[in-house]
Amino acid sequence: MSDERIIFGAAAIPEPDRDWLAAAERLPIASVWQGGHVLPPSATGEAITRLALLTAWTERVRVGTAVLQLPLYQPVIAAKQLADLDARSGGRVSVGIGVGGEFRTEFDAVGVPVGERGPRTDEAMRVLRTLWRGGPVAHHGRFFRFDDVELRPVRPPGEDGPGMRPGGPPLLVSGRKRPAMRRAARLGDGWMPYLMSPEAYARSVAAVREEADAAGRDLAGFEWMLYLYCSVRRDGDRARDDVAGFLGGAYGGRPEAMLDRIAPAGTPDEVAARLQRYVDAGVRHFVIAPAAHAGTLEVVRLAAEEVLPRLTIPAPASTGAAS
User: Fold this and answer.
1) Strand runs (DSSP E) across the chain, as ranges?
2) Gyration radius from the chain CA atoms
3) Most buried in the list 11, 190, 194, 291, measured by CB within 10 Å?
4) What is the pLDDT of residue 2?
5) Is 90 left (phi over 0), alpha (psi -120 to 50) or beta?
6) Which helix (H) or strand (E) is 105 found in, with range?
7) Who's near 196: CB < 8 A, 6+ residues apart?
8) What region holds the Luciferase-like domain (predicted)?
9) Which residues touch 248 (CB under 8 Å, ≥6 apart)?
10) What are 84-126's pLDDT values in tens digits?
């Protein structure tokens, strides 16, 4: 496509901060993201609460959940919350969705069997879209049922119209396994995996396209995204130390070579070379998640100002011999 381009977003980790977000909005980034759990083992935020802060503390960029553990939520309530935030933000909300399962106690506490998280997520996505369609609607599913209900998003003061954009926010599916790829192909507006090598991302693109073909779905307008842990520093060794300290323990003490395949680190030149491989594999929207305990805005700034300009979309493959 002639208008195809590469864009960067940023994950506001560890927590949304008003000054950090204001500084990030001055950078050449298109989006900011935050996720969360309901009952994680540490004192961290919940996804929709964090999204509300992103909505309130930004003016220009797209804001999204990366990710919302959808099976933990009653989808009618989530639909209303997300619709209101989209309306109040001027249509800037996006909803990254995952099935969760890392913390079984969350599922036990809300009365959702962890083994049902996949089908519940699929049905909840359909519920969101049904309610966001507008007008009186009904849904009769395995987990959720309602008749003749209508979701009415709030209207920002002084504005006419429905507030929320028609059809509601885009739903972007996260994950790393085939069921998530199937969900993205059949129900999602985009694919946003994490902790993937360029080779694995290329395979996931092929799988999503295969699943879409099987479902008879045209993926025009579909978003090819990646939530990417990384560190960019002037001192490449410091960047590599960032990633090792940030991710090494959390992901089973993986050796540096393995971390480097899924979490690029180094100077702007070094990281650009790694990210170009993801672009070649199909990524068009990177969410840069600083894998560092300090100086995260510097990581985002170097990524946006010095890595992004180095990336190029590969030329389309020739479809025939020259005449």
Assistant:
1) 7-11, 31-36, 62-69, 93-98, 137-140, 145-149, 171-173, 190-191, 223-232, 265-266, 285-290
2) 20
3) 291
4) 46
5) left
6) helix 104-110
7) 176, 204, 226, 262
8) 19-285
9) 254, 259
10) 999 999 999 999 999 999 999 999 999 999 999 999 999 999 9
